Amino acid sequence: MAARPVLLLGGSGFIGRHVAARLAARAHHVIVPTRNRERARALLTLPTVQVFQADVQDDAQLASLVRSADAVINLVGVLDGGRGSPWGPGFERAHVKLVARIVEAARAAGLRRLLHVSALGVHEGGERTLPSMYLRSKAAGERLVRDAGDLQWTVFRPSVVFGRGDSLIERFMLLQRWLPVIPLGRADARLQPVWVGDVARALVNALDEQATVHRCYELAGPDVWTLRELIRFAGELSGYRRTVVGLPEALGRLQAMLLEFAPGALHMSRDNFASLSIDNVADGPIAAELRIEPASLASIAPSYLDVHELRLAEERRRARR
Ligand SMILES: NC(=O)c1ccc[n+]([C@@H]2O[C@H](COP(=O)([O-])OP(=O)(O)OC[C@H]3O[C@@H](n4cnc5c(N)ncnc54)[C@H](OP(=O)(O)O)[C@@H]3O)[C@@H](O)[C@H]2O)c1
User: Fold this and answer.
1) Nearest alpha carbon, ligand 1 atom 37
2) Closest Cα to atom 46, ligand 1: which residue?
3) DSSP state, residue 187
4) In a domain, 173, yes or no
5) What is the per-residue pLDDT across 85-117, written as a single tens digit (0 to 9) for each?
6) The CA-based dihedral angle spanning residues 76, 91, 14, 54, taken in that order and rounded to the nearest 10 degrees
7) Cα 242 to averaged position of ligand 1 atoms, centre (Å)
């Protein structure tokens, strides 16, 4: 009997698209439910990947998708989930309630394997102590998975992820095209960017690796960067290297508040700003059983960033306005 498919929740997103391609390259059958098929357009050409318009927030639809699968990989996440205490409603829906429902559906279906993507910085008890709604709600969702000892789960905590289609380096490049100087809050925040290809490989390698069951893995690249250094690097790549002006705490927060109303690459929230108040750095190298030799941002970014393509895309966007 052919193996049942892998259900890739959040498969239409940035990381999900790379995971789907990696699974397809290993001849896995993959199901990607999405609220908007158009968003998953890039997946339609992958031979073993099926994209469905579906609402995984609906219990019956989720249960039926989970029943049809051998393994679930959960990549659903939001950076902006509204405001609230201890977190806004969008975070509750995507990071907590959905995870509880996935765990329940997985139990009911006798699912073989559950992989859950959390975020670097999340730790036990973090739902009470972490500085942002994003991180606190991620911690609450992660705990629901870790508490499900009857399921064969593995949790991943990636640092900020870079790669084709990311919202990190491409965004910093565009900002330097548009702005003469870059005013920056939390310029000295430390991050350890990890390549999306390595994240995808770690997840796919873990699927059939028994040693990864009931383990949490940090995923980070080989180098630690400050935010200021990342912006400078993107400036050099784009040919528009601007001066970065570090903002004091209060001004940085005010900037984030104003940018909540900005569209596209300029958009930022007070909650994103709060997430930057703790280091986004791993405790050690990626665990050996994941079989990853992480690639560095400096070596990979020039190969995937097509500066001309980015400029053309930007000009097309402007022409449409
Ligand atoms: N990118 C990073 O640097 C980074 C770093 C650390 C951790 N992570 C985590 O990694 C995961 C994937 O990140 P990403 O950058 O690939 O995200 P992304 O590009 O924004 O994609 C998010 C995915 O989640 C789905 N989704 C969002 N809200 C949903 C909801 N309420 N109900 C159902 N589906 C919903 C979207 O599906 P639709 O097609 O239905 O819209 C989409 O496929 C997230 O959990 C994120 O927190 C990302």
Assistant:
1) 10
2) 77
3) T
4) yes
5) 999 999 999 999 999 999 999 999 999 999 999
6) 50
7) 31
pLDDT tens, 40-53?
999 999 999 999 99
Residue with tokens 């280091």: 279
Residue owning the nearest CA to atom 31 of ligand 1: 94
Provide the domain count of the chain: 2
Spatial separation of the C-alpha atoms in residues 203 and 157, rounded to whole Å: 11
Choose the residue to mutate in 35, 37, 56, 118 for probing ligand 1, maximizing ligand atoms within 8 Å of C-beta. 35
- Are 132 and 184 in the same domain? no
227 Cα–ligand 1 center, Å: 22
List the domain range (segments joined by +) for residue 46: 6-162+195-219
Strands 71-74 and 161-162: unpaired
- To the question of pTM greater than 0.90 for the whole model, the response is yes
Q: Do 136 and 184 lie in a common domain?
A: no
- Asked whether the beta carbons of 275 and 135 are under 8 A apart, the reply is yes
Phi, psi angle pair for 219, to nearest 5°? -125, 115
DSSP 3-state of 12: coil
Instruction: Supply 70's token pair.
Output: 């051998």
Are residues 110 and 31 part of one domain? Answer: yes
Q: Which protein residues touch ligand 1 with a CB less than 6 Å away?
A: 10, 12-16, 34-36, 39, 56-57, 75-78, 93-94, 117, 119, 158, 160-161
Strands 113-117 and 243-247: unpaired
SS3 content of the chain, % helix, strand, coil (to 5): 45, 15, 35
